[in-house]
User: What shape does this take?
Amino acid sequence: MGRSPCCDQDAGVKKGPWTPEEDKLLVDYIKENGHGSWRRLPKLAGLNRCGKSCRLRWTNYLRPDIKRGRFTDDEEKLIIHLHSILGNKWSSIATKLPGRTDNEIKNYWNTHLRKKLLGMGIDPVTHRPRTDLNLLAAAGIPNLLAAAQSSCWDINALRLQADAAKFQLLQGLLRAFSAPPAAGVDLMALLAAATTNGVSGQPAAGTTATMAQQQQQQYDGLLNLPALTSVPAATSLPAMSSSLICSGLLSGGGAFGGGDGVSSSTTASGSNMMAPPPPLVAAKEQCNNDSTPASSPFEGLENLNNLEDEFNSDSWRDLLEQMSWLNNPNEQQL
DNA sequence: AACCGAAGCAACCGCCCACGA
DNA sequence: ATCGTGGGCGGTTGCTTCGGT
Assistant: This one.
């Protein structure tokens, strides 16, 4: 094509942030004349800017119908929904959100929504549940490992983080199932089934319409689950068995279902912002506490990082056995 | 109070496509 | 049919702000 850049040859054209004076010149000119040819506009408006820069400034910030301020919950949901259909077609998404620009939506996606979906265990590109262990690594395992290397821990905070990690682990594993297992089923059996059936996140060959529907319902339900760091201390996972947790998750209610006050869709601010994770390091006076463990209780989690390439039931079984302290809080009186 | 790293966001860059000559 | 131009788009950069130490 060989098209020359629109402004490069214009030596001395100003770049960088716009001043209020420049904004006024641009707004006044467009109000009076319309923008016409963007390439000719700067000269006509008395601006030492490239036409493209003027267009961007107008369409993204100076247009009178621009809506500023925080995105509402509804807007967030709509963006996520549209992104799942349209992908990174920000301009198409923007047409469904009056007053919002593609640039604003794109920035909001990259800085907030993308992380939020990751925190929920949803792949922000495919909008499918993530079943790989990178999910755990991204969501919270590094925090735990960092804490494990610390010489002094806030035990309650660690317990909360461990609970959250356990929840996240189960959340990821449960997504591997093609159909919800019955309540009260043995966790080890579930894990074995998951690893036997594959954890690709794609419908297994031979999946029936009913199974696919169940899968979708399960997926939809998971979208409403709290993210790792949004589990408040007062409502952290109770000391329940993994099987109970499984059944609670899969029944759509239980410990984490809708209306329990833990859902990420209900925060004081009205947004879906995550609550900050609790501090992992204890106050100074607690550092001398004799009950601080001498060895890390996170060995099982550390081993998680070595399992990326070996998805087999034996690996999972070994891992879960190593992490038995996670599944039995009574053993974990640190 | 000063410093530093992380996060947020405005703006830029370069590619692509539609359209008219 | 070809080429040049205008404009749109997604990705990226870098500055500013904020929060923690």
About this structure: The CA atoms of residues 84 and 126 of chain A lie 7 Å apart. The mean pLDDT of chain A is 53.
